[in-house]
Amino acid sequence: MSAEQAKILIVDDETTNIDVLVGLLETDYKTVVAKNGEQAIRRAKITPCPDLILLDIIMPDIDGFEVCRRLKEDEETAGIPVIFITGKESEQDETRGLAVGAVDFIRKPFSPPVAMARIQTHLALQRQRLHLMQLNELKNRFLGMAAHDLRNPLNSISGLSEILLTMHLEEHEKQNFIQTIHDVSGQMLKLIHDLLDVSTIESGHFALERRVCDLRALVAERVEILRFTARDKGVTLRTELAHTPITPLDPDRLAQVLDNLISNAIKFTPPDSVVTIRSGCANQRLYVQVIDQGPGIPDAERHRLFGAFQRLTTRPTAREKSTGLGLSIVKRIVDAHYGEILVANNAQCGAIFTCLFPLQEPVLPVTGPSAPPERPLRLLLIDDDFALRLMYGKAFAEEGFEWVGEAENGLEGLELFETHKPDVVICDIAMPEMDGIETLQAILASDPDALVIMLTSSLDQEKWTLCLAKGARYTLRKDTPFPEIRRKVLEIWKEYQGRFA
């Protein structure tokens, strides 16, 4: 739910009151109207349910207290926050309203700015509640997945190891048991790695470590590692690897992509078949393609392919285990490289997975609004990461910008801002002593027209939205390529100048 998408149900028997509230809210929110209590209860259950209900107390059929009580008793509507709109001011009424489940009161006649502030506050709280519910659901799925998928391997290891310790076995039997223990422990390790990767991605701490990478050599290396797995199943790995330019990529994460795609192809390909792996460069993009000869992807299930914990109706041909997490991780790694993953069914049989990566960092040409200004732009960087300050300071200086200073926390940054009055401030969100949000607000209090770009390593969209709501001109992730940051700084400055042209 975002502010632009939020749905608000307005319940009031007075047309004038409804018109005022709809006029106040319809620019930013989707509004639905009910003119009595029974109608309100019915409309609160229409999918999608409202994100907030503005409820009058005095109505002709059933009053607002009873409507609120019934909404809170219904599991379908219990989680919707209710704000009473009322002209009543008695302490008894307020106590009763809170007792039946209301979260706030707006008094008639109301001030539009105050009413909007209360509505926005409770919508933000609702967003946080829903986000926490999603995280809790994800945690429960993690625990359920781990408990279910680790139980059987652990039972196998426990049982086989006990037999090895207590029974006399022939040498070939011992080797068979040891091999089985090795295999199932590998399954457990793979599951744990996948769970940790998904946890890292969902927590917002997922970041690439780019370095120069020969994609062709990386693909060849992963194929050789998996060739033994394929050989045990009677599957042939065939490669068609063209020359590729050296490119900044994260080879460890790309190895995960390749391992997942090639392993899946082996799993779903029957014995005495071929899996083809191709790589190369075309149309200014690197590509890796894995083609199997399995059953393909059912059209009705393709939309679920990259979701976490998804298992399709197609099954591995030798009953190999799958966590249902691999392709979800693949998609996030490819996305982090500004890449694209395509899936198609082969005309004969099997599936084709194609990963495309930009040959170089996605840099837009510096033209139009991003053209260099007539004088060097004066920049201030506020960030507690010394290495990042050093890197950006050097990079911007090389591009002809004037670096007026750098600060490792918000207090120092605010002092430098007031002393040097830079054109643009680049400010980290998470800092000691005074965090980025506080620093942003202090800078704008000093100069309401200040141009501040917030910088963060977090994937938390709520933080990004909060920064923009507090007055930041833009929010960039720390792993954004420097040319894109440079372009955005110039673009924002050009837009600012245009206001005074």
General description of the model:
The protein has 501 residues and is an alpha/beta fold. The protein has four domains: 7-110, Response regulator (Rossmann fold); 134-203, Signal transduction histidine kinase, dimerisation/phosphotransfer (DHp) domain (Helix Hairpins, Orthogonal Bundle), CATH 1.10.287; 211-358, 2-Layer Sandwich (Heat Shock Protein 90); 368-498, Response regulator (Rossmann fold, 3-Layer(aba) Sandwich). The chain has helices spanning 15-25, 37-44, 64-73, 91-99, 112-166, 171-203, 215-233, 251-268, 326-336, 386-398, 410-420, 436-446, 461-469, 482-498, and strands spanning 7-11, 30-34, 52-56, 82-86, 104-107, 211-213, 236-241, 247-249, 274-282, 285-291, 340-345, 351-358, 378-382, 402-407, 424-428, 451-456, 474-477. The chain has a five-stranded parallel β-sheet with strand order 2-1-3-4-5, sandwiched between helices. It has a five-stranded mixed β-sheet with strand order 7-9-10-12-11, with helices on one face. Helix 7 (215-233) packs parallel to helix 8 and helix 8 runs antiparallel to helix 9.
Rough outline: globular
Domain count:
4
Radius of gyration: 29 Å
CATH top level of the largest domain is: Alpha Beta
Could you report the average pLDDT, rounded to the nearest whole number? 82
Please outline the helices and strands.
Elements: E1 7-11, H1 15-25, E2 30-34, H2 37-44, E3 52-56, H3 64-73, E4 82-86, H4 91-99, E5 104-107, H5 112-166, H6 171-203, E6 211-213, H7 215-233, E7 236-241, E8 247-249, H8 251-268, E9 274-282, E10 285-291, H9 326-336, E11 340-345, E12 351-358, E13 378-382, H10 386-398, E14 402-407, H11 410-420, E15 424-428, H12 436-446, E16 451-456, H13 461-469, E17 474-477, H14 482-498
Parallel strand pairs: 1-2, 1-3, 3-4, 4-5, 7-9, 13-14, 13-15, 15-16, 16-17
Antiparallel strand pairs: 6-8, 9-10, 10-12, 11-12
Helix pairs in contact: 2-3, 5-6, 6-9, 7-8, 8-9, 11-12
